TrEMBL record:
Protein name: Thiamine-phosphate synthase
Highest taxon above the source species: Bacteria
Domain Thiamine phosphate synthase/TenI, residue spans: 299-465
Matching InterPro entries: Aldolase_TIM (IPR013785), HMP/HMP-P_kinase_dom (IPR004399), PM/HMP-P_kinase-1 (IPR013749), Ribokinase-like (IPR029056), ThiamineP_synth_sf (IPR036206), ThiamineP_synth_TenI (IPR022998), TMP_synthase (IPR034291)
Gene from which the chain derives: thiE
Organism: Legionella clemsonensis
Summary of the function given for this chain in its UniProt record: Condenses 4-methyl-5-(beta-hydroxyethyl)thiazole monophosphate (THZ-P) and 2-methyl-4-amino-5-hydroxymethyl pyrimidine pyrophosphate (HMP-PP) to form thiamine monophosphate (TMP).
Pathway note: Cofactor biosynthesis; thiamine diphosphate biosynthesis; thiamine phosphate from 4-amino-2-methyl-5-diphosphomethylpyrimidine and 4-methyl-5-(2-phosphoethyl)-thiazole: step 1/1
Pfam family, one: Phos_pyr_kin
Amino acid sequence: MKKPIAWSIAGVDPTGLAGSHVDVEIFKHFNVESCAIIAAVTAQNTSGVTAIAPLSADHIAAQCNALWQEFKPNVIKMGMLGMIKTHEKILQFLENYSGLSVLDPVLSSSTGNSLILENEKQYINSLIRLFPYVDVVTPNRIEAEKILGRQLGSYEEIQEAAHALLALGAKNILLKGGHVKDSLLSQDYWTNGQESFWLANKRLPNKNYRGTGCTLSSAIAACLALGYSIKDALVIAKMYVHRGIRNSIEVVKGTARVFHDAWPENQIDLPYLSPNPLKQEPPSFKTCHTELYPVVDRSHWLEKLLPLGIKTIQLRIKDLQGKQLAEEVKRSVRLAKKYSATLFINDYWELAIQYGAEGVHLGQEDLLGADITKIRQAGLYLGISTHCYYEVATAHTFNPSYIACGPIYSTTSKVMSFKPQGIEQLQRWRRTLQYPLVAIGGISLERLPNVLKTNVQGISLISAITKAADPDRVTKQLLKTIREQAYGE
Protein backbone atom coordinates (compact mmCIF):
# COMPACT_ATOMS: atom_id res chain seq x y z
CA MET A 1 0.00 0.00 0.00
CA LYS A 2 1.38 3.39 -1.02
CA LYS A 3 2.25 5.69 1.85
CA PRO A 4 0.61 9.12 2.09
CA ILE A 5 2.94 12.05 1.49
CA ALA A 6 3.54 15.04 3.75
CA TRP A 7 5.57 18.11 2.91
CA SER A 8 7.40 20.26 5.41
CA ILE A 9 8.06 23.89 4.49
CA ALA A 10 10.29 25.12 7.29
CA GLY A 11 13.67 26.39 8.38
CA VAL A 12 16.79 24.42 9.22
CA ASP A 13 17.99 24.34 12.83
CA PRO A 14 21.56 22.94 12.72
CA THR A 15 21.13 21.45 16.20
CA GLY A 16 18.40 19.18 14.82
CA LEU A 17 16.20 20.08 17.80
CA ALA A 18 13.54 21.89 15.77
CA GLY A 19 12.54 22.83 12.24
CA SER A 20 12.65 20.61 9.17
CA HIS A 21 14.81 17.93 10.83
CA VAL A 22 12.08 17.30 13.38
CA ASP A 23 9.27 17.45 10.82
CA VAL A 24 10.84 14.75 8.66
CA GLU A 25 11.66 12.56 11.65
CA ILE A 26 8.07 12.69 12.89
CA PHE A 27 6.61 11.89 9.47
CA LYS A 28 8.81 8.80 9.31
CA HIS A 29 7.73 7.67 12.78
CA PHE A 30 4.10 7.89 11.64
CA ASN A 31 4.95 5.91 8.49
CA VAL A 32 4.26 8.89 6.22
CA GLU A 33 6.46 9.67 3.20
CA SER A 34 8.25 12.96 3.85
CA CYS A 35 9.54 15.79 1.68
CA ALA A 36 11.39 18.81 3.08
CA ILE A 37 11.23 22.22 1.43
CA ILE A 38 13.75 24.56 3.03
CA ALA A 39 12.64 28.16 3.57
CA ALA A 40 15.60 29.39 5.62
CA VAL A 41 18.84 28.21 7.18
CA THR A 42 19.64 29.40 10.68
CA ALA A 43 22.86 29.54 12.64
CA GLN A 44 21.91 28.70 16.21
CA ASN A 45 22.59 26.57 19.24
CA THR A 46 20.83 26.07 22.56
CA SER A 47 21.81 29.59 23.65
CA GLY A 48 20.33 31.49 20.74
CA VAL A 49 20.18 32.37 17.04
CA THR A 50 23.22 34.13 15.60
CA ALA A 51 22.28 34.36 11.91
CA ILE A 52 19.41 33.68 9.52
CA ALA A 53 19.75 33.07 5.78
CA PRO A 54 16.33 32.92 4.12
CA LEU A 55 16.15 31.26 0.72
CA SER A 56 14.68 33.32 -2.09
CA ALA A 57 10.96 33.06 -2.71
CA ASP A 58 11.67 31.89 -6.26
CA HIS A 59 13.88 29.07 -5.00
CA ILE A 60 11.23 27.95 -2.51
CA ALA A 61 8.66 27.97 -5.32
CA ALA A 62 11.06 25.94 -7.46
CA GLN A 63 11.34 23.34 -4.68
CA CYS A 64 7.55 23.09 -4.51
CA ASN A 65 7.20 22.78 -8.27
CA ALA A 66 9.90 20.11 -8.52
CA LEU A 67 8.34 17.98 -5.79
CA TRP A 68 4.86 18.44 -7.24
CA GLN A 69 5.90 16.54 -10.35
CA GLU A 70 6.57 13.30 -8.43
CA PHE A 71 5.52 13.69 -4.78
CA LYS A 72 2.11 15.36 -4.63
CA PRO A 73 1.31 15.91 -0.95
CA ASN A 74 -1.69 14.76 1.02
CA VAL A 75 -0.74 17.31 3.68
CA ILE A 76 1.56 20.33 3.84
CA LYS A 77 2.99 21.45 7.18
CA MET A 78 4.40 24.98 7.31
CA GLY A 79 6.67 26.43 9.99
CA MET A 80 9.32 29.14 9.65
CA LEU A 81 8.71 30.72 6.24
CA GLY A 82 11.49 33.28 5.99
CA MET A 83 10.34 36.35 4.07
CA ILE A 84 7.15 38.15 3.05
CA LYS A 85 7.84 37.35 -0.61
CA THR A 86 7.79 33.67 0.35
CA HIS A 87 4.23 34.12 1.65
CA GLU A 88 3.22 35.36 -1.80
CA LYS A 89 4.59 32.24 -3.51
CA ILE A 90 3.03 29.89 -0.95
CA LEU A 91 -0.28 31.71 -1.24
CA GLN A 92 -0.25 31.20 -5.02
CA PHE A 93 0.48 27.52 -4.48
CA LEU A 94 -2.23 27.03 -1.85
CA GLU A 95 -4.85 28.69 -4.05
CA ASN A 96 -4.55 25.73 -6.44
CA TYR A 97 -3.91 23.04 -3.82
CA SER A 98 -6.80 20.78 -2.76
CA GLY A 99 -5.07 18.82 0.02
CA LEU A 100 -4.84 19.54 3.72
CA SER A 101 -2.43 21.92 5.42
CA VAL A 102 -1.20 22.88 8.88
CA LEU A 103 0.46 26.18 9.77
CA ASP A 104 2.65 26.62 12.84
CA PRO A 105 3.11 30.41 12.75
CA VAL A 106 6.71 30.43 13.96
CA LEU A 107 7.81 33.95 14.85
CA SER A 108 10.68 33.26 17.24
CA SER A 109 12.93 30.43 18.35
CA SER A 110 12.57 28.46 21.60
CA THR A 111 15.40 30.61 22.95
CA GLY A 112 13.30 33.74 22.41
CA ASN A 113 15.16 35.12 19.37
CA SER A 114 13.05 36.65 16.64
CA LEU A 115 13.09 34.75 13.35
CA ILE A 116 11.69 37.72 11.42
CA LEU A 117 14.16 39.77 9.38
CA GLU A 118 11.60 42.31 8.11
CA ASN A 119 9.19 44.67 9.83
CA GLU A 120 7.38 42.44 12.33
CA LYS A 121 3.93 43.97 11.87
CA GLN A 122 4.16 43.77 8.07
CA TYR A 123 5.41 40.17 8.28
CA ILE A 124 2.53 39.13 10.56
CA ASN A 125 -0.07 40.86 8.37
CA SER A 126 1.35 39.02 5.38
CA LEU A 127 1.32 35.69 7.24
CA ILE A 128 -2.35 36.18 8.16
CA ARG A 129 -3.20 36.15 4.45
CA LEU A 130 -2.41 32.40 4.47
CA PHE A 131 -4.99 31.63 7.18
CA PRO A 132 -8.03 31.14 4.87
CA TYR A 133 -6.10 28.54 2.85
CA VAL A 134 -4.91 26.52 5.85
CA ASP A 135 -6.90 23.82 7.64
CA VAL A 136 -5.29 24.07 11.09
CA VAL A 137 -3.30 26.94 12.62
CA THR A 138 -1.36 26.11 15.81
CA PRO A 139 -0.04 29.26 17.53
CA ASN A 140 1.26 29.24 21.07
CA ARG A 141 0.17 31.96 23.46
CA ILE A 142 3.12 34.24 22.66
CA GLU A 143 2.56 33.95 18.90
CA ALA A 144 -1.15 34.63 19.34
CA GLU A 145 -0.32 37.73 21.39
CA LYS A 146 1.90 39.08 18.60
CA ILE A 147 -0.64 38.30 15.88
CA LEU A 148 -3.53 39.91 17.77
CA GLY A 149 -1.57 42.67 19.51
CA ARG A 150 -2.89 41.88 22.99
CA GLN A 151 -1.79 40.09 26.15
CA LEU A 152 -3.29 36.71 27.06
CA GLY A 153 -3.09 35.82 30.72
CA SER A 154 -6.11 33.63 31.42
CA TYR A 155 -7.99 30.73 29.88
CA GLU A 156 -10.92 33.02 29.12
CA GLU A 157 -8.60 35.29 27.15
CA ILE A 158 -7.19 32.28 25.29
CA GLN A 159 -10.71 31.30 24.21
CA GLU A 160 -11.45 34.85 23.06
CA ALA A 161 -8.14 34.97 21.20
CA ALA A 162 -8.83 31.71 19.37
CA HIS A 163 -12.11 33.08 18.07
CA ALA A 164 -10.39 36.32 17.09
CA LEU A 165 -7.91 34.24 15.07
CA LEU A 166 -10.81 32.44 13.39
CA ALA A 167 -12.15 35.84 12.41
CA LEU A 168 -8.91 36.36 10.45
CA GLY A 169 -9.93 33.51 8.16
CA ALA A 170 -8.59 30.39 9.88
CA LYS A 171 -10.74 27.23 9.74
CA ASN A 172 -9.40 25.53 12.87
CA ILE A 173 -7.35 27.06 15.66
CA LEU A 174 -5.41 25.08 18.24
CA LEU A 175 -4.14 27.71 20.65
CA LYS A 176 -1.47 26.20 22.84
CA GLY A 177 -1.99 27.32 26.42
CA GLY A 178 1.02 25.57 27.90
CA HIS A 179 2.58 28.95 28.60
CA VAL A 180 -0.19 29.77 31.13
CA LYS A 181 1.58 28.99 34.40
CA ASP A 182 -1.31 29.06 36.91
CA SER A 183 -2.25 25.40 36.59
CA LEU A 184 -0.98 21.90 37.33
CA LEU A 185 -2.20 21.04 33.84
CA SER A 186 -0.97 22.12 30.41
CA GLN A 187 -4.11 22.95 28.43
CA ASP A 188 -4.68 23.75 24.76
CA TYR A 189 -7.87 25.14 23.24
CA TRP A 190 -9.33 24.09 19.89
CA THR A 191 -12.22 25.64 18.01
CA ASN A 192 -13.60 25.74 14.49
CA GLY A 193 -16.26 28.32 15.33
CA GLN A 194 -19.07 25.81 15.76
CA GLU A 195 -17.39 23.40 18.19
CA SER A 196 -14.65 23.74 20.75
CA PHE A 197 -12.84 21.83 23.48
CA TRP A 198 -9.82 21.87 25.77
CA LEU A 199 -7.07 19.26 25.76
CA ALA A 200 -5.30 18.88 29.10
CA ASN A 201 -2.22 16.91 30.13
CA LYS A 202 -0.42 16.86 33.44
CA ARG A 203 2.25 19.57 33.40
CA LEU A 204 5.76 18.14 33.37
CA PRO A 205 8.91 19.60 35.03
CA ASN A 206 9.81 23.00 33.65
CA LYS A 207 12.71 22.94 31.19
CA ASN A 208 13.47 24.51 27.85
CA TYR A 209 12.00 21.74 25.70
CA ARG A 210 13.15 22.48 22.16
CA GLY A 211 10.90 21.86 19.17
CA THR A 212 7.59 21.20 20.92
CA GLY A 213 5.67 23.42 18.48
CA CYS A 214 7.25 21.72 15.46
CA THR A 215 6.50 18.35 17.00
CA LEU A 216 2.83 19.10 17.64
CA SER A 217 2.08 20.58 14.23
CA SER A 218 4.00 17.86 12.38
CA ALA A 219 2.24 15.10 14.33
CA ILE A 220 -1.11 16.70 13.47
CA ALA A 221 -0.10 16.83 9.80
CA ALA A 222 1.03 13.19 9.84
CA CYS A 223 -2.28 12.04 11.33
CA LEU A 224 -4.24 14.06 8.76
CA ALA A 225 -2.17 12.43 6.02
CA LEU A 226 -3.15 9.04 7.43
CA GLY A 227 -6.83 9.93 7.12
CA TYR A 228 -7.67 10.78 10.72
CA SER A 229 -10.20 13.52 11.44
CA ILE A 230 -8.90 16.83 12.75
CA LYS A 231 -10.24 16.04 16.24
CA ASP A 232 -8.53 12.65 16.32
CA ALA A 233 -5.33 14.15 14.91
CA LEU A 234 -5.20 16.71 17.72
CA VAL A 235 -5.58 14.03 20.40
CA ILE A 236 -2.94 11.73 18.89
CA ALA A 237 -0.55 14.66 18.40
CA LYS A 238 -0.99 15.74 22.02
CA MET A 239 -0.16 12.19 23.09
CA TYR A 240 2.95 12.24 20.91
CA VAL A 241 4.17 15.56 22.31
CA HIS A 242 3.48 14.66 25.94
CA ARG A 243 5.37 11.39 25.57
CA GLY A 244 8.20 13.28 23.88
CA ILE A 245 8.46 15.76 26.74
CA ARG A 246 8.06 13.05 29.39
CA ASN A 247 10.97 11.08 27.89
CA SER A 248 13.01 14.10 26.82
CA ILE A 249 16.80 14.00 26.90
CA GLU A 250 18.82 16.90 28.30
CA VAL A 251 21.37 17.99 25.69
CA VAL A 252 22.89 20.83 27.70
CA LYS A 253 22.00 22.05 31.18
CA GLY A 254 18.41 23.33 31.16
CA THR A 255 17.67 22.41 27.52
CA ALA A 256 16.07 19.13 26.52
CA ARG A 257 15.52 17.32 23.22
CA VAL A 258 11.97 16.06 22.72
CA PHE A 259 11.98 12.27 22.42
CA HIS A 260 10.70 10.85 19.12
CA ASP A 261 9.44 7.35 18.51
CA ALA A 262 6.63 5.43 16.84
CA TRP A 263 2.91 5.66 17.61
CA PRO A 264 2.10 6.83 21.19
CA GLU A 265 0.54 3.99 23.18
CA ASN A 266 0.44 4.97 26.83
CA GLN A 267 -2.57 6.25 28.75
CA ILE A 268 -0.34 8.57 30.76
CA ASP A 269 0.00 10.67 27.58
CA LEU A 270 -3.71 10.66 26.68
CA PRO A 271 -5.16 14.16 27.15
CA TYR A 272 -8.36 14.89 29.00
CA LEU A 273 -10.83 16.39 26.52
CA SER A 274 -13.46 18.70 27.99
CA PRO A 275 -15.63 21.70 27.03
CA ASN A 276 -14.02 23.82 29.77
CA PRO A 277 -10.49 24.06 31.17
CA LEU A 278 -9.90 21.68 34.07
CA LYS A 279 -8.74 22.79 37.51
CA GLN A 280 -7.38 19.37 38.45
CA GLU A 281 -7.20 15.80 37.22
CA PRO A 282 -10.71 14.29 37.44
CA PRO A 283 -11.66 11.73 40.14
CA SER A 284 -12.10 8.09 39.18
CA PHE A 285 -15.12 5.80 39.15
CA LYS A 286 -14.68 2.36 40.67
CA THR A 287 -13.70 -0.26 38.08
CA CYS A 288 -15.69 -3.37 37.27
CA HIS A 289 -15.27 -6.79 35.65
CA THR A 290 -17.67 -7.40 32.75
CA GLU A 291 -16.75 -10.71 31.02
CA LEU A 292 -19.63 -11.68 28.66
CA TYR A 293 -21.79 -8.56 28.59
CA PRO A 294 -25.12 -8.85 26.72
CA VAL A 295 -27.05 -5.72 25.79
CA VAL A 296 -30.81 -6.28 25.81
CA ASP A 297 -33.93 -4.19 25.36
CA ARG A 298 -36.38 -5.79 27.82
CA SER A 299 -36.36 -7.26 31.31
CA HIS A 300 -37.51 -10.66 30.06
CA TRP A 301 -34.03 -11.14 28.61
CA LEU A 302 -32.57 -10.88 32.11
CA GLU A 303 -35.01 -13.56 33.21
CA LYS A 304 -33.73 -15.76 30.40
CA LEU A 305 -29.97 -15.02 30.51
CA LEU A 306 -29.06 -14.47 34.16
CA PRO A 307 -29.85 -18.06 35.22
CA LEU A 308 -27.29 -19.21 32.61
CA GLY A 309 -24.45 -17.54 34.50
CA ILE A 310 -24.33 -14.04 33.01
CA LYS A 311 -22.91 -11.70 35.66
CA THR A 312 -23.01 -8.35 33.83
CA ILE A 313 -25.82 -7.15 31.58
CA GLN A 314 -27.04 -3.86 30.11
CA LEU A 315 -30.63 -2.74 29.67
CA ARG A 316 -30.83 -0.52 26.59
CA ILE A 317 -34.38 0.65 25.86
CA LYS A 318 -35.02 3.14 23.05
CA ASP A 319 -38.76 2.71 22.43
CA LEU A 320 -40.44 3.21 25.83
CA GLN A 321 -41.11 6.23 28.02
CA GLY A 322 -42.72 7.13 31.31
CA LYS A 323 -44.31 4.42 33.44
CA GLN A 324 -43.54 1.57 31.01
CA LEU A 325 -39.86 2.47 30.95
CA ALA A 326 -39.71 2.81 34.73
CA GLU A 327 -41.36 -0.59 35.22
CA GLU A 328 -38.83 -2.26 32.92
CA VAL A 329 -35.93 -0.70 34.84
CA LYS A 330 -37.47 -1.59 38.20
CA ARG A 331 -38.08 -5.22 37.19
CA SER A 332 -34.59 -5.54 35.69
CA VAL A 333 -32.99 -4.27 38.91
CA ARG A 334 -34.97 -6.80 40.90
CA LEU A 335 -33.85 -9.65 38.63
CA ALA A 336 -30.21 -8.55 38.72
CA LYS A 337 -30.23 -8.55 42.51
CA LYS A 338 -31.89 -11.98 42.58
CA TYR A 339 -29.06 -13.48 40.52
CA SER A 340 -26.25 -11.34 42.02
CA ALA A 341 -25.56 -9.77 38.62
CA THR A 342 -24.38 -6.25 37.81
CA LEU A 343 -26.97 -4.32 35.81
CA PHE A 344 -26.07 -1.27 33.73
CA ILE A 345 -28.87 1.03 32.57
CA ASN A 346 -28.21 2.67 29.23
CA ASP A 347 -28.76 6.44 29.24
CA TYR A 348 -31.45 6.70 31.96
CA TRP A 349 -29.13 7.49 34.84
CA GLU A 350 -31.85 9.02 37.04
CA LEU A 351 -33.90 5.82 36.88
CA ALA A 352 -30.77 3.80 37.58
CA ILE A 353 -30.19 5.78 40.77
CA GLN A 354 -33.87 5.75 41.73
CA TYR A 355 -34.31 1.98 41.46
CA GLY A 356 -30.88 0.91 42.64
CA ALA A 357 -29.09 -0.35 39.53
CA GLU A 358 -25.36 -0.81 39.99
CA GLY A 359 -24.23 0.97 36.84
CA VAL A 360 -24.99 3.44 34.07
CA HIS A 361 -23.77 3.26 30.48
CA LEU A 362 -23.65 6.49 28.50
CA GLY A 363 -23.01 7.22 24.86
CA GLN A 364 -20.98 10.25 23.86
CA GLU A 365 -24.10 12.27 23.09
CA ASP A 366 -25.48 11.55 26.58
CA LEU A 367 -22.44 12.67 28.58
CA LEU A 368 -23.11 16.40 28.60
CA GLY A 369 -26.74 15.92 29.68
CA ALA A 370 -25.94 13.58 32.56
CA ASP A 371 -25.09 14.66 36.09
CA ILE A 372 -21.82 12.78 36.45
CA THR A 373 -21.35 14.00 40.02
CA LYS A 374 -24.69 12.52 41.10
CA ILE A 375 -23.85 9.22 39.39
CA ARG A 376 -20.52 9.10 41.23
CA GLN A 377 -22.05 10.11 44.57
CA ALA A 378 -24.64 7.34 44.20
CA GLY A 379 -21.77 4.85 44.03
CA LEU A 380 -22.64 3.59 40.55
CA TYR A 381 -20.31 2.18 37.95
CA LEU A 382 -19.99 4.25 34.76
CA GLY A 383 -19.36 2.81 31.31
CA ILE A 384 -18.84 5.00 28.23
CA SER A 385 -19.05 4.20 24.51
CA THR A 386 -16.18 5.26 22.25
CA HIS A 387 -15.42 4.93 18.55
CA CYS A 388 -12.25 7.01 18.00
CA TYR A 389 -9.41 8.88 19.71
CA TYR A 390 -11.48 12.02 20.23
CA GLU A 391 -14.17 10.03 22.04
CA VAL A 392 -11.65 8.02 24.09
CA ALA A 393 -10.09 11.30 25.27
CA THR A 394 -13.58 12.55 26.15
CA ALA A 395 -14.30 9.38 28.14
CA HIS A 396 -10.91 9.69 29.84
CA THR A 397 -12.05 12.99 31.35
CA PHE A 398 -14.67 11.09 33.38
CA ASN A 399 -12.30 8.31 34.53
CA PRO A 400 -15.03 5.69 33.95
CA SER A 401 -15.39 2.13 35.24
CA TYR A 402 -14.83 0.82 31.73
CA ILE A 403 -14.52 2.06 28.17
CA ALA A 404 -16.43 0.34 25.37
CA CYS A 405 -14.59 0.31 22.02
CA GLY A 406 -16.39 -0.35 18.77
CA PRO A 407 -17.65 -1.26 16.39
CA ILE A 408 -15.01 -3.97 16.05
CA TYR A 409 -16.82 -5.46 13.04
CA SER A 410 -19.70 -4.24 10.89
CA THR A 411 -22.91 -4.33 12.87
CA THR A 412 -26.63 -4.21 12.09
CA SER A 413 -27.72 -3.57 15.69
CA LYS A 414 -27.60 0.21 15.23
CA VAL A 415 -26.79 2.74 12.52
CA MET A 416 -23.12 3.70 12.85
CA SER A 417 -21.28 6.71 11.43
CA PHE A 418 -17.93 5.06 12.23
CA LYS A 419 -16.30 2.35 10.17
CA PRO A 420 -15.31 -0.89 11.95
CA GLN A 421 -12.14 -0.50 14.03
CA GLY A 422 -10.97 -4.08 13.57
CA ILE A 423 -8.80 -6.34 15.69
CA GLU A 424 -5.57 -4.42 15.06
CA GLN A 425 -6.99 -1.19 16.49
CA LEU A 426 -8.53 -3.10 19.40
CA GLN A 427 -5.07 -4.47 20.16
CA ARG A 428 -3.72 -0.91 20.10
CA TRP A 429 -6.41 0.25 22.52
CA ARG A 430 -5.51 -2.66 24.79
CA ARG A 431 -1.83 -1.61 24.73
CA THR A 432 -2.71 2.04 25.30
CA LEU A 433 -5.47 2.09 27.90
CA GLN A 434 -5.40 0.98 31.51
CA TYR A 435 -9.19 1.09 31.82
CA PRO A 436 -11.10 -2.19 31.59
CA LEU A 437 -12.03 -2.46 27.90
CA VAL A 438 -15.27 -3.81 26.48
CA ALA A 439 -15.27 -4.80 22.80
CA ILE A 440 -18.58 -4.33 21.00
CA GLY A 441 -19.96 -4.41 17.48
CA GLY A 442 -20.48 -7.32 15.11
CA ILE A 443 -18.93 -9.90 17.44
CA SER A 444 -20.23 -13.43 16.90
CA LEU A 445 -19.40 -16.87 18.26
CA GLU A 446 -17.16 -17.42 15.22
CA ARG A 447 -15.32 -14.12 15.66
CA LEU A 448 -15.03 -14.40 19.43
CA PRO A 449 -11.65 -16.24 19.56
CA ASN A 450 -9.88 -13.43 17.67
CA VAL A 451 -11.38 -10.82 19.99
CA LEU A 452 -10.36 -12.82 23.06
CA LYS A 453 -6.76 -12.90 21.85
CA THR A 454 -6.57 -9.14 22.47
CA ASN A 455 -7.16 -9.79 26.21
CA VAL A 456 -9.96 -7.27 26.51
CA GLN A 457 -11.80 -7.53 29.81
CA GLY A 458 -15.32 -7.60 28.36
CA ILE A 459 -17.18 -8.79 25.27
CA SER A 460 -20.49 -7.07 24.58
CA LEU A 461 -23.02 -8.63 22.22
CA ILE A 462 -26.49 -7.71 21.09
CA SER A 463 -27.85 -9.50 18.02
CA ALA A 464 -25.52 -12.50 18.37
CA ILE A 465 -27.66 -13.41 21.39
CA THR A 466 -31.02 -11.69 20.95
CA LYS A 467 -31.44 -12.72 17.30
CA ALA A 468 -30.05 -16.23 17.68
CA ALA A 469 -32.32 -19.15 16.85
CA ASP A 470 -31.44 -20.62 20.25
CA PRO A 471 -30.27 -17.82 22.59
CA ASP A 472 -29.75 -20.21 25.51
CA ARG A 473 -27.40 -22.47 23.57
CA VAL A 474 -25.44 -19.55 22.07
CA THR A 475 -25.07 -17.85 25.46
CA LYS A 476 -23.81 -21.04 27.10
CA GLN A 477 -21.29 -21.55 24.29
CA LEU A 478 -20.13 -17.93 24.51
CA LEU A 479 -19.62 -18.23 28.26
CA LYS A 480 -17.79 -21.52 27.84
CA THR A 481 -15.44 -20.08 25.20
CA ILE A 482 -14.69 -16.95 27.25
CA ARG A 483 -14.08 -18.84 30.48
CA GLU A 484 -11.88 -21.41 28.80
CA GLN A 485 -9.74 -18.57 27.45
CA ALA A 486 -9.68 -16.66 30.74
CA TYR A 487 -9.50 -19.40 33.33
CA GLY A 488 -8.65 -22.57 31.43
CA GLU A 489 -11.95 -24.13 32.49
